[in-house]
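Per reviewer request, we include the raw input and output of the structure prediction for the construct analysed in the revised manuscript.
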Amino acid sequence: MTLQQTLEYFLKAITSESQDITVEATEANGMTTLTVNAPKEKIGQIIGKEGKIIKALRTLLGISFPQNRFNIEIKE
């Protein structure tokens, strides 16, 4: 699995298999930017209280892909 596929898998598991969520990956200067496109009502679930869910996702991806540098952006 790639970084993009792993993030998409986690997001769909968190948000009850929502098919409206997509992840786009762009790479520049050794840094991968993962852009999450999600409906407004799902963004709260993705971020979590005080950002705990998104922080946990960043930690999981960092552990799973230690050789990759990445940033996660969320768009509505």
